Amino acid sequence: MSPTAPDEAPVRRVAAFFDLDKTIIAKSSALAFSRPFFDEGLLNRRAVLKSSYAQFLMMLTAADHDQMERMRDHLTQMCEGWNVEQVSTIVRETLHDVVNPLVFAEASELISGHHARGHDVVIVSASGEEMVRPIAEMLGADYSVASKMKVEDGKYAGEVEFYCYGENKVVAMEALAAEHGYDLAQCFAYSDSITDVPMLAAVGHPTAVNPDRGLRKEAADRGWPVVSFSNPTPLRDRIPTPSRNSVLASAGLGAVAATAGIATYLVLHRKKR
């Protein structure tokens, strides 16, 4: 007799979907790379000041959809004309010094735990794929999905091809589920932001990680677990570092977002003085 009955349903695979910023790493990935971009001349003080003010306003209030759209437009216009290869090189050469110390030990252990259970690990981030992809590889993730910017003649064209934010994260997750056979009802998701409620609601096992005020309330209303990660620890002794050639950076929105953040201005101001 065949070990599998003809009418037996195929085994569905399981994935753990992770947001990146403040879920796996302790700060914005875009902000983390702002200093290397400034040092290499991609950012000037005027650009930093303008974006810092916009970011500061968003820090004071819960950003709604319209605010996020305006911020996206502002940032994409700011990086129009940046050389893609230059951005890729900066990310590749500074990745481990910039991001490695920011990874939460708890997140790293959670990723390892999912792999031990046979689950795929997927990073889903609104930051640009030129940063998200190499970070995902450094973390040992199986796949990553991120925002992608249009490129013409090797330069950013100032238009976003895919904005991996809000409901678009669910679109990306569903596409991966169809491609790899994931059963979203059995899958896991982790995020810190109220804007990722669609992502969390799309799976059977959502968890709020270091949630902002809005997500904390939403998690309480829905009965979702809430966890705190508070121990950023360098990965070098816990996850093997990939070879230099394996870290490939491609164009995306995140390079633009490196201009944002009031903390960036404060760092640069101290240097000036």
Automatic annotation (TrEMBL):
Domain of life according to the entry: Bacteria
Keyword Phosphoprotein: no
Transmembrane domains' residue ranges: 247-268
UniProt GO MF annotations: hydrolase activity; metal ion binding
UniProt keyword terms in alphabetical order: Hydrolase, Magnesium, Membrane, Metal-binding, Transmembrane, Transmembrane helix
Keyword presence, Transit peptide: no
SUPFAM superfamilies: HAD-like (SSF56784)
UniProt EC number: 3.1.3.3
Entry similarity comment: Belongs to the HAD-like hydrolase superfamily. SerB family.
NCBIfam families cross-referenced by the UniProt entry: HAD-SF-IB, HAD-SF-IB-hyp1
Name of the protein in question: HAD-IB family hydrolase
